[in-house]
Amino acid sequence: MNSLTEHVNALLEAIPPQDGTRRLVAIVGAPGSGKSTFANELARRLNLKKQKTVVVPMDGFHLDNQVLHERGLFQRKGAPETFDATGLIRLVKALRANEDVFAPNFDRTRDISIAGAIVVPQDTEVVIVEGNYLMFDEPPWSTLAPLWDITARIDVPMPELRARLIQRWLSLNYSRAVATRRAEGNDVPNAQRCIDKALPCDFVFDGQPDGRT
Fold first, then answer.
1. Helix residue spans in 49-134 (DSSP H)
2. Less Cβ around it within 10 Å: N or C end of the chain?
């Protein structure tokens, strides 16, 4: 049994069986830690157990590139100040009610957020929100901490994160020099900030390569 399976099993045991109450689960970690993989596998397993589950990525709240250019923040895209944090907070509060909720998603191929792209139906029992700053000790992000029922952090050492972040750019056919410059100029500082300002979570899971989380 690999680490991903073990970690998902641990969270499955912590999520109560169906009782009519919607549960909000936060999966957090630095860029490149494997949050999306973990969140999607957890959702798959919950849905197999007939607990209707939807994943909502925090990345849907990226500010539009035009807004970032106007504010001089485009080169820092992915930093906390480049997201609509207050919009995310409103969404999470809305998710508390057992009602239909619509959330944005992020289209990486076009580098834009798409409004209303994710539907959280009224009968959804578990909503998994995954993102970098869901348990982050800076305002207004820290407002989110008491809204979660369960929190889990994917912990990856910085040398491994750096390698993964460089690989992201290499996979887009950038040269090694450009990929390294892009990662170290923005992605790595964002990852370090996530680590430095992390709030305590209910679970902390090892995200080393052999665990594929």
1. 65-70, 85-95
2. N
Give burial (CB, 10 Å; 0-12/13-18/19+) of 73: middle
Q: Taking the CB of residue 189, how many other CB atoms lie within 10 A of it? A: 14
Q: Residues 72-129: pLDDT tens digits?
A: 999 999 999 999 999 999 999 999 888 899 999 999 878 899 999 999 999 999 999 9
How many Å apart are CA 199 and CA 143, to the nearest integer? 11
CA distances from 73 to 78, 79, 87, 135, 194 (A): 10, 9, 18, 22, 18
Please, are residues 202 and 15 in contact by the beta-carbon 8 Å criterion? no
Give residue for tokens 């009610």: 97
* pLDDT tens digits, 15-49: 988 777 899 999 999 999 999 999 999 999 999 99
- Closest C-alpha among 123, 136, 149 to residue 197: 136
Query: How do 101-107 and 126-131 pair as beta strands?
Result: unpaired
Report the helix count and the strand count for the chain, using DSSP H and E.
7, 7
Decide: 201 and 144 in contact? Cβ < 8 Å: no
**Residue 164 CA, distance from chain mean position:** 16
The first and second tokens of residue 143, run together, are 């407002």
User: Tokens in use for 41?
Assistant: 């596998």
